[in-house]
Amino acid sequence: MSISVKAKNHINNIGYFKLFIVIETIAIAVFLTLNCIWHGWMFSSMMLRIQTQFDDFFVHLGLGSAPIGTNIYEYSTMACFPPLAYLMYGFLARLSGYQAELPTAVETVRDTGFNMMVLMLYNLICIVLLVYAVSLYFKKKSFVTLALFPALLIFSYPILFSSVQRGNSAFLTSVLLAIALAWRNDQSKVKRELAMILIAVCTGLKIYPAVFGLMYLKEKRWGETVRLVIYGIVLFFLPFVFYGGFEGMRSFFGIIFGLFGEIHACTVSGIVLSLVKDAFGTKAVLFASIVQQLYLIFSLIAFFCAKDKRTEILILCCLMTVYVSSGWMYTCVFMLPALLTFFSEQEGKPIRWRVGNIPDYMAFVMFLSVFSRPVLLGGYMFIYYAIVIISVLYHLAIIGAAVNRRWIKPFLAA
After folding, report:
1. The dihedral of CA 239, 243, 247, 253: what is its sign?
2. Which of 10, 112, 106, 4 is nearest to 49 (CA)?
3. How far is it, in rounded angstroms, from Cα 184 to Cα 190?
4. How far is CA 414 from each of CA 97, 403, 404, 410, rounded to the nearest angstrom?
5. Residue 4's pLDDT is what?
6. Rounded to whole angstroms, how far apart are CA atoms 113 and 299?
7. Cα 48 to Cα 94, 108, 303, 308, distances in angstroms
8. Which parts of 184-283 fold into alpha helices (H)?
């Protein structure tokens, strides 16, 4: 066999995962090389202001360190996490014996005692869980799947340059959610039950993962749906006992409802608002909010039209990432479960250029857009434009395929 034939066969057998590894490795090499040439400009340009690094961790660590029974939601509107999250931060604060005198003084919390060490421990735990999550999705255990691939993910924008840089619990939540989805259909009853508990825990940390209850509902797994709801209610509401009880609950929901009015740039409504504010004037916010709700409806229709799990998970992950108007730069890490699911289902399969595979091509381009070096393509907002635009096209493809199966093919056959 000639060298050219061997090379052609090798190219024909390349899969999405191998292609992702190659592209990401090259992208990181280019990024680091240019960063060295430009004396750190590329690295620093992807970060927020140095004065605000790790703020999301330390402000919530300070709030969580408050004495048991304190209504922390009265301190500041920054106390916007469910109480289960503050139980976690409270535990972390007590590891170093820390209790904040003024919980919202971020710089003081950051510079006091061993709190920076606690942050390092927290991130190390997240990384260990990430490697474990990756191991659940790949049948072939190798250096690439268990070392190189997790390393590429850690160095990606969603993890290192947003979630870790902010110290936000979105990183931990996305990893736990990935583990839950890997266990959700396991043969072990214990793991299936733990999967529901983990989804409830993730909901208690960030609220967004509650949408994954729709998967149980769609599959008519009624018993598990009921237990998932019970787990969710218990883990969401019971921890209020430690942070102000009913008064704390009232204060929390007041903060959450207040956030509904915020529109951040890296969301559906934020992107639409930036595009139409000059043309629509005072009505731009209303128009952006309408489009936001249409995106939700469109996503739900596509979800119930989907025929495979990777499609369902991708749709729900897109919802968590760009739907909530108050979401911020770190929400792109919620694409992690969709990425792992996609590559696990495509493992060992070569890329085939067929019309029916168009949704897979779009999904792959989306993952590259999210986990590659966005600064080369116009900053982190490139990620969110890519998710919004590609997810809408993806939804159209899924809904179109469902309409074709349900009405067009039977009509033509008749």
Report:
1. negative
2. 106
3. 10
4. 74, 16, 14, 6
5. 53
6. 46
7. 29, 19, 34, 38
8. 189-206, 213-218, 222-237, 245-259, 268-280
Residue type, 123: N
d(C-alpha 155, C-alpha 159), whole Å: 7
Whether the Cβ atoms of residue 121 and residue 87 lie closer than 8 Å to each other: no
Residue with tokens 């043309």: 279
CB distance 328 to 266 below 8 Å: yes
Work out the pLDDT band at 5, boundaries 50, 70, 90: very low
Tokens of 283: 């009505």
Rounded to 5°, the CA angle 56-90-180 comes to: 75
Question: pLDDT value at position 328?
Answer: 87
> Of 230, 216, 154, which is closest to residue 180 (Cα–Cα)?
216
Q: 194 vs 161, 199, 249, CA distance in Å?
A: 31, 9, 27
pLDDT tens, 337-382? Answer: 999 999 998 877 788 787 778 889 999 999 999 998 655 556 788 8
What are the residues facing 350 on neighbouring strands? Answer: 15
Backbone angles phi, psi at 39, to 5 degrees: 55, 50
Length of the chain: 414
Q: Taking the mean position of all CA atoms in its chain, how far away is CA 57?
A: 17
pLDDT of 253 over the 80 cut:
yes
pLDDT score of 404: 84
Provide the whole-model pTM: 0.93
**Neighbouring-strand partners of residue 15:** 350
Q: Tell me the C-alpha distance between 327 and 236, whole Å.
A: 20
Tell me how far apart the alpha carbons of residues 144 and 146 are, in angstroms, rounded to a whole number.
Answer: 6
- The residue type at 211: V
Listed residue (373, 404, 262, 401) closest to 24, CA to CA: 373
Q: In 10 A of CB 181, how many CB atoms? A: 26
Q: State the chain's mean pLDDT as an integer.
A: 90
Q: What is the pLDDT of residues 377-406, one digit of tens each?
A: 567 888 999 999 999 999 999 999 899 888
Find the DSSP H helices in 38-114. 41-45, 55-64, 83-95, 106-111
pLDDT in tens, 218-233: 999 999 999 999 999 9
Which amino acid, residue 197? I
Q: Percentage of the chain with pLDDT > 70? A: 94
